[in-house]
UniProtKB/TrEMBL annotation:
Alphabetical list of Gene3D superfamilies matching this protein: Periplasmic binding protein-like II (3.40.190.10), Winged helix-like DNA-binding domain superfamily/Winged helix DNA-binding domain (1.10.10.10)
Protein name: LysR family transcriptional regulator
Pfam family, one: HTH_1
PROSITE patterns per record: HTH_LYSR
Record field: transmembrane: none
Amino acid sequence: MDPHLLRTFVTVVTEGSFSAAADRLGYTQPAVSQQIAALEADLGVPLLTRRPVRPTRAGERLLEHAGPLLLRLRAARTDVARLAARPRTLTVAAGPLVLTAGTAAALAGVTTLRIAGAAAAMALVASGEADLALADGPAAPSDPLNLPEAGPLTTVGVREEELVVVLAEGHPLAGRAGLRLDDLADALWVDAPEVMPLDRLRAVARLDGLRPGIRYEGHDPAVAARLAAAGHGLTLLPASAAPCGVRVPLVAPRIVHRVELVHAALPPGPAAEVVRALTS
């Protein structure tokens, strides 16, 4: 399967239009149509309906594979290029809950810090847009994070921290010594996908519920804590990232906030020094 044809297919689906895909890719519209026809001929099935432009059932299945395949191709190209490259900058991608004082102190020599969720941070390293990633999320103690496959990358655990439920003053549960997540399944939660995604929390806890309340689309955990402290819903954060509100330890299920360092093969230099500082 020609990766150029696959990339064109993904772009058409994303843009919802052959002409918009042509503009984005720098092709003519007939060229895009020819590439889609060639891919359909190669696979022997129609992949798109034309009016409107939507993936067929076979196209939806191909789309599930396309993202990881294209990422692996970018990762392979980047990995080979790294062997000859002489990096002048050092970029780290990190989740918004990662940067404790100790972690920030270990980033000596870093020229750029990009805030990104775990999957996005992995993709940035795989594509060469970042040299290191500090991926994070909820996990059972000592269990690795469920990170997407992104090529031959090294993953090392950095730290784990207990989680607390952040509530408003006067909340009926504010006086508890500890809280169980299943007792909070019907409560409203601050929906902060860039801070503590509720879907990942449900998956790790194997729990339904956790009704989304107010939605916060930023990266600052302090804002999520302030929304919880103001009564807009509960939130779950590492204790070090919850500057306000009533903080009650989560006692069941046993879930921690885990941080993992992700990187490709590194030559001696600033990136290797940061790795040593973070993992020592």
